[in-house]
């Protein structure tokens, strides 16, 4: 789910205006802004006026300035280097009636039709329209709003609320939500039991998850996402026993329905949400093997590693130990998220949600996703989860590239002088070394090259090369695209 989908047309336009201004640099002319967004001058002028008022209201050390220079009207956003522009976006989101409905459900857990109509000051027809749209968005979580409640598997409901609050509430407000002493003591107890120290980011995420488990304390666990077989595997993990002991201590004196089972939810959260807490990748290490007790996760993760290393012609023994431990942890956490948790929530505009892949990494990632969906019996994967998963898998593939046995040898020849050739070497390395395993050098007649890149087709007969590419000067966009295709084709041929 993308939170921008909760905004109305006018609000979304105003955020788009700010994004275009920021992307343009110091300033942009009104005429260019109008052209970029394909809107009228009347619409733009009204939107800019409202944007100025919102900046004044949110008080984030940022302002929208309009100035005339040589008969041209320019617009710019003036802000401090430390200003978080997302605070501006949050202000718009907070005004969204659909977002307010979700927040109402989070705090109250249920509503009546009359309650919402009065609270939001809307008509019954508007309420039904908002609820219908929310149900369309909730479908990717396998959830729905029915009879004044969010219904579905309890684990998914908890996860949805976690994603909603984490991605839509400013950090200072999340801190205010989780100041409960019992929650903070539980986070500390988890650190002590696991013999580790969470970073601030992880502490806050763990505390928020505990808050949500506590908030839904009266909900009966009539359905869940954890089969009896999975429960057997989970309960055999010593880590689970530690987590359960801490969680049950957390609920003493505050008896909750399903407390014992919710310790499973806490455990699943912990073994799937440490991807970005690199200091804690190793707390789940189980004797140097896959850091999970779940056989299906192990099987799929092992397949991914073998598939990638086979295609890259990499020997597993060539991976350093820390590299293996880190990526085993990351892959199992990613797969655990995909297996147990439906989708995720983002607050990034759709034009920023791009999956940047080389042709080669794409050729590996797509079979991996297909395998994951087959193994996990899932018909599809949500767009937001796909972007998240693709970025991690691409990072794994590119990191593994460095240990490939076959390096492409690239020769650079410039007819002008040595320094021109050296510049091309640096430019080529900057552009392609992150995606391909390359040895790049100024060409010499005694060396054989997989690819010779030159700014002249003349005087290259004395060089030995399998393929040649002629530049028309410095690397341009067309060169980058064509060279990426050539390098992909060479990689595929040697593997």
Automatic annotation (TrEMBL):
**Disulfide bond: is it a keyword of this entry?**
no
Asked if the record carries the keyword 4Fe-4S, the reply is no
Organism superkingdom: Bacteria
Q: Which residues form a coiled coil?
A: none
Q: Which UniProt keywords apply?
A: Transcription, Transcription regulation
Q: Signal peptide span per the entry? A: none
Q: Which residues form the Mga helix-turn-helix domain?
A: 87-164
Task: Note one Pfam family from the annotation.
Answer: Mga
Query: What is the protein's given name?
Result: Mga helix-turn-helix domain-containing protein
Q: What is the lineage of its organism?
A: Bacteria, Bacillati, Bacillota, Bacilli, Lactobacillales
